[in-house]
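Troubleshooting: if your tokenizer reports a length mismatch, compare your output against this known-good record of 110 residues.
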Amino acid sequence: MSKFVMPMQAAERVAQLGQRIRVARIRRGWSVADLASKAGINRNTLTALELGKTGTAVGVCFTVLWALGLDKSLDAVADPDSDLHGKALEASRRPTRAGKARKASDDYDF
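Known-good structure output:
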């Protein structure tokens, strides 16, 4: 049985996201109970998300962003059109030229 250890950079990003969600909640003047109710989750779950606990489900995060009206900000997350590295790798695997030119068939020459 392997034990997953989140990379430090990823854990820091999760913590930053939690802080941003907390700031958005406070700017709206909502309590933890208010936002948890709007998102349909437990207050403890919201607190864990705001504290950057890495075990919080991604679905909870998306739901809270939706309740805050920030779900459109997710449109850029992992957008394939913005993935320059992936595009470069894909392009490097494409053939450099098309197949051999084929001679036209005269089977239908009248």
